[in-house]
Every structure is written in structure tokens, then in C-alpha cells.
Write a structure and sequence with these properties.
The chain is mostly beta strands and about 70 residues long. It contains no helices and nine strands.
Length: about 70
């Protein structure tokens, strides 16, 4: 939902079929995350993250953000 944030910021990621997700990355940098429901994940912007695509690896494939996440 949020398109920008500082390192350490919690971000809500919305999608479908997110249950069982194994990875969240911010422009290639792995983030800690929690699957809240099949349609929501919370993740923290990781140290070393740079502006770019947020990707979520789900059992059905890899989902990519349609807007670049801006790390401030």
C-alpha cells in the first residue's frame, strides 16, 4: 500500500494467495515479513534496501510491485 519509507518501516503488502509465501525482497534485499492473511503481508524495509521493485515469492509464483518502492 505504501510506496515509500525509511529502513525499519513496516509496510503492508496486499495481494492474493499470499499464504505460504517464502520471501519478500526490496529491490533484491531480503526483508523480514509476516503473512497476516491470504491477502496481506507485513514486512519491514531492510537495511541496505534501495529504491526499486518489491517482490513476494508465493507458492504460485513471484509477485512484483507495479510501482517502485522509494527508500528514503
Amino acid at each position: 500500500q505504501t510506496t515509500s519509507g525509511k529502513v525499519g518501516t513496516k509496510v503492508v503488502i496486499l495481494g492474493t494467495n499470499l499464504t505460504g509465501s517464502t520471501s519478500v525482497t526490496f529491490n533484491g534485499t531480503a526483508a523480514s515479513f509476516k503473512v497476516v492473511s491470504s491477502s496481506e503481508i507485513t514486512a519491514s524495509v531492510p537495511t541496505g534496501a534501495t529504491t526499486g521493485t518489491v517482490k513476494v515469492v508465493t507458492p504460485g509464483g513471484t509477485l512484483s510491485s507495479n510501482v517502485a518502492f522509494q527508500v528514503r
